[in-house]
Prior knowledge:
The complex is a heterotrimer.
Chain A: E1 4-9, H1 12-16, H2 19-32, E2 39-44, E3 56-59, E4 63-65, H3 73-82, H4 108-111, H5 129-134, H6 139-147, H7 150-160, H8 172-181, E5 188-193, H9 202-209, H10 211-225, E6 229-235, H11 239-254, E7 259-262, E8 267-276, H12 285-292, E9 316-320, H13 321-333, H14 335-339, E10 349-356, E11 362-367, H15 372-379, E12 389-394, E13 400-403, H16 413-418, E14 427-432, H17 437-451, H18 457-474, H19 482-496, H20 500-504, H21 507-515, H22 517-525, E15 539-542, H23 552-556, E16 562-564, E17 571-573, H24 583-587, E18 593-596
Parallel strand pairs in A: 1-2, 5-6, 5-9, 6-8, 10-14
Antiparallel strand pairs in A: 1-3, 3-4, 7-8, 10-11, 12-13, 12-14, 15-18, 16-17
Chain B: E1 7-13, H1 19-25, H2 30-37, E2 38-40, E3 54-60, E4 63-65, H3 66-78, E5 79-85, H4 87-91, H5 103-113, E6 131-136, E7 146-148, H6 155-166
Parallel strand pairs in B: 1-2, 1-3, 3-5, 5-7
Antiparallel strand pairs in B: 4-6
Chain C: E1 6-11, E2 14-19, H1 24-30, E3 54-56, E4 63-65, E5 76-77, H2 82-98, H3 114-121, E6 138-139, E7 145-148, H4 157-166, E8 171-174, E9 181-184, H5 201-205, E10 211-213, E11 226-231, E12 240-246, E13 249-255, H6 268-276, E14 286-289, E15 292-295, H7 298-309, E16 317-321, H8 327-336, E17 342-346, H9 351-356, H10 364-370, E18 373-377, H11 381-384, H12 386-399, E19 402-406, E20 419-421, H13 428-437, E21 444-448, H14 455-469, E22 479-482, H15 489-494, E23 498-500, H16 503-508, E24 514-520, H17 533-541, E25 544-549, E26 561-564, E27 573-576, E28 582-585, H18 598-606
Amino acid sequence: MIRTHILVCTGTGCTSGGSLATRDALLAELKKRGLDNEIEVIETGCMGRCDLGPVSLVHPDGTFYKNVVAADVPKLVEEHFLKGRPYTKLLPQDPQTHNVVATQADFTFFNKQVRIVRDNCGVIDPENIEEYIARDGYTALGKALIEMKPEQVVAEIKASGLRGRGGAGFPTGRKWEIMRQAPEFPKYVVCNADEGDPGAFMNRSVLEGDPHGVLEGMAIGAYAMGSNRGFIYIRAEYGLAVKRLHIAIEQAYKHGLLGKNIFETGFDFDVEVRIGAGAFVCGEETALMRSVEGRRGQPQPRPPFPAQRGLWGKPTNINNVETWATIRPIILRGAKWFASIGTEKTKGTKVFCLAGKINNTGVAELPFGTTLREMIFDVGGGIPDGKKFKAVQTGGPSGGVIPEQHLDIPVDYESLQKLGSIMGSGGMVVMDEDSCMVDVARFFMEFCCEESCGKCPPCRVGTRQMLTILERICNGQGEPDDIRKLEDLAAMVKDTSLCGLGQTAPNPVLTTLRYFRDEYMAHIMEKRCPARVCRELLHFEIDQAACKGCSICSRACPVQTIHKVDGQKKFYITTERCIHCGACYDACRFDAVIKTSPGRIRVAKPEEELVAGGVP
Amino acid sequence: MSDKPKIKVATAWLGGCSGCHMSFLDLDERLIELAKLVEFTASPITDVKEIPQVDVGIVEGAVCNDENERVLRTMRSRCKVLVALGDCALTGNIPALRNQQALADVLERGYVETESTQAGVTPSAPEVPKLLAKVRPIQEFVNVDAYIPGCPPDADAIWYAVTELLAGRKPEWTPANMRYD
Amino acid sequence: MIAPKEITLTIDGKPCNGTQGQTILQVAGANGIEIPTLCYLKHLSPWGGCRMCIVEIPDSPKVVPSCATPAADGSTVVTNSQRLEGLRRLTLELLFSERNHVCPICPMNKGDCDLQQQGYKFGIDSIRYPYLYPAMPIDVSGRYFGLDHNRCILCTRCVRACDEIEGVHTLDIGNRGVKNRIVVDLNVTFGVSTTCTSCGACVAACPTGALFDKAAAFHGPLNKCRSVRTTCTECPVGCGLVVYTKDNRVVDVFGDVESPVNQGHLCRRGRYETWAEPRQRILQPRVRRNGKLVPTSWDDAVRTVKTLMSASNDWQNALLVSPRVTTETIDALHTIGVRFDRVGMFVADKEAALCTTPEFSADSMQRLEDTDAIIVIGANPSRTHGVIASKIRTAVRKRGAKLVILHSRRSDLDAYADVSAPVISLERKFWKQIGDVLANVKRPVLIYGPAAMTTVGITIMDRLIKALGSNGDGGELLAAIQLPTSTNSLALATAGVEPVEDVSTWLGAQPLNFLHIVASDEPDGGARLLKEPRVRAMLEQIDCVVLQASYESELTEVAKVVLPAAIWCEKNGTVTNFEGRSLPVRAAVPLHGEAREDGAILETVFA
């Protein structure tokens, strides 16, 4: 008789933290204590708090344990399952109140969430179709196939107000309708799982936690649009998700939920997984299609749109993982219910990834209309170490930074766009006062430059030239004219680039220039980095009063430029030879190394490279 | 001859073949006309080295070494209008071809490896200007007010640019009067 | 067939007519509105990459590439505005800053560099952004052309030409972003490429000096060259050529885009071999004196031949001509033929049988454009008729046409074939396969070459004609295309000249006293006559052999008199291609040395 379940997260994050060993230890310990008939261990997908991993959840009491490594298991079993009290050592703390949080329900990270897409994630065993079916799995497909005409399915999705979760927010129902009306056959449906934004893992968490939800959504979509063949394009880096997808597809075929004559309705649907090789641009739909066809992944001009001429020249519908995963709840619970969540223009929920300088790092599903402040300070638990919030980058490298004064806007596609950023995949990278915004812009531009496919000059060369300018500003070689050059280029790259990658690549530059122009000016005019990040503009010295003469800084210095002056106990930095690496600053245990960016008028030495550039 | 003060012009020859200056001399009889309006100060043509305060500075050649850079910056600080003459000044052109190789390899090839250098050594005397890591056009160092493209620009192009500048206009290049070679 | 719908749109305020399916660029072009382009090339699929042809359309905040955007009926398009001008200008600046675009030392500084032209057009006199100066390699390992990555703007015109016109897809792009580079095969060099056919389509498509013809490099602006439109006489396809000359030398050869035969495409033989290969010309008449050939004047040479020929009335005289001669030379043969006991043409291997039933297949090139199945028997187009091979490849690769090959030599086409048999055979297993492959074809084309003219070959063709002729629902009958190897052999055969394949038998039929050989501009100088070892001895038995040829060869060793003949670019006249088209051959350069045209020589000597 099973009285309790302990759910062990086996998402990618927790697995790398050792959750598989935890699982084995739990199984062994429960067996040893004779509890294996009462307590069942279940592997689940991502629960959303990857930074606390390996995490576990006990049902039905809802106790949420963090950092459950194998060594803690005997004690945990003894405390929780024998003595019947929570094992406090492994309970998380609220980052702001520092109170111990006993259950998942008490955790602000969880209790603000509205789980539609991730309803099953962290709850069921993703490798077991029975568990999915037990939670109404494939009921929506049955309902669509048996009770609804394809047009009705399209109408339902239209009525729900669902918008594509891939970033652009195009109304899904409208997209399906265009595809349905396309006169050519065969038609294809594609699931875009080429999630490439740094710091974004919402698609991965959904695929790892609930792969059947995506398959069911695709089958419903295929039925509605008159397609019989689907592809899931997923990047090779997502090994676990690929594995679970394969298992899910195999199980669905075995149960007759994919393949020929599904539910005896005469509807056939086949799904194939296609693995991408990790090019960011392959997330762009036209590039994705070329990659599925086995060609070089480069975008094509639109029109013609995929619904007109897609895979192998046939009508094709491409939706993001999250969009597909949202179909099932809409069919099951109705468009009206779905449309009641969210804002006027954007309905439903969105899975966000909280990352960067934030206490609660992880995946959170929140209704549209939640403010950035709620996301960062309530769900995210605020900024660590009492630092000040500076900005949040939404939408990955193609998005923009949003400063403190706009934190109270309700998040949806339009509101973010108005601020110069985008929804994108839903990534949220939080930056605190220690982040240099010029450096942030440089970092994201470097990413776009690396990932540009090179088809059109604005993106290929434009991003490279913007990076060159940003690099020289960070290196203290910026010129007053550089800001105008950057703005000209950014506008041109945005307007002229062929695909979304180039069109959005200047966003980080444009938004940092819009909200943090003073930081650019400090770098260019005063050769000063206010956040003390840009290495070339730093100055290190040792506070003689604080120095204990322990010599750790001297030993950390890679260029041996920290020495004692004869006969004295304390250390000094020979500034001329310092390479500003900060090793001493990090090494000092007494806060005796002072990092400043004093600013100076820099005279370029003739023998040095005056302008960074050139391709290695 | 009018009493109007003559416009003072200085020209400089950086990293280039001097072909642009040669082309300047190809103005032929137009030089006489020009001489009525302008006064040449420092220039490879007059062999005056010290650049005084002038109205127009004309620079041929790319910036290859620290001396080029010093001359260029001096010129910029002493002239009101700076004109880049020829493709080397505009684009780096042929001198910039060495940018594809590492500087050390270039010197090695030039002074040591060749058939004509026996037991060659790379000059290292302090008075020899130091080569920059990369050859660059002049607008990457200073603001340039007008450009005369061509390798070299032919005399007509130079004449057009000079007359436009004397009339206080920036030369506008069209397919009819423009060449990159 | 329904005529495409007429559409009207307003471009730059001007009402413009077009048809449904045309792009904005096409409609604008047809209505006299020029939009700047770089990656666009007629005959190639639109790429939309260079962003020069961008235009503004209403209701779209974004600009769209006019080369790839379908023109919409009733829409308004702006092709020229201050904003567009600025964007295009900046695009050009970025392209100039990306790699090395230094014109003075560009091998293709010929006035036809699209990038240079656009630079002039937009008056780009300086670049505001730093030059990146990447160090890119230069691949000069190819026989006829080189690839300088430093000058590449990544427009992919070469990639598309290679894929869509020649059909081999040797070229593609490697890497990402600014590290993008054109790659040959799996990133090898042209010199070791196993797929490159050296057709030069990529070079012709290249808008800059990235791909350049080695022999054409540094010859100065093409627009200062003389250009002549003529016809390639290397094979019976008869491709149109545009020959550029300077100082009476050929400096470049391109395909004639207006030619109905090849629409601008050429093969290695036509584009390069004729002028970029070192060959030793015969430029002066020579007469054998005391066992040695010594230079002499035309008068002396002609006198010598005439004297020798009239030495005795009993002499058996014969004339042996190359099938490369022009139709006008064939006419001349009619008048002078009476002076010879026998007149023959020395055709290629196995070609004699083909020439006994000469047939011209009208519009064959057109048929190859829309066929859905191609059967090749006894021909090796990728070796001998490159442009036909390209049509076959593209038919298979782009339109999914079926391909059946029966021949005795392997070629790269085998890789594209549904059935490829190394022998022309009636084996049952082939028939089964061929039957399956050709089961539902509607517009099949049969190409048969000299090697098909065997008993087995003819039986196979008869069977195919029977099978495919009755194929399906009133589908068209099989088009049978006769593809000879030699340029004008069908015209000569039609004119009644006896095809000679087995030279020794022909020579041995009756002892000869006088033989005049017209080798014309055969690349080997006619030396293939000596392929059979005993021919040389037989020629030596003849009292007098006169050789009329353009190039030096072993054949001169047996000649009493050697007369210099004109080459392809010095001739005037016509040739008849395998479709039966009479195509003009025009002299691009004056006769070199003392060379004379074949017909003129024959008339002077034998009139």
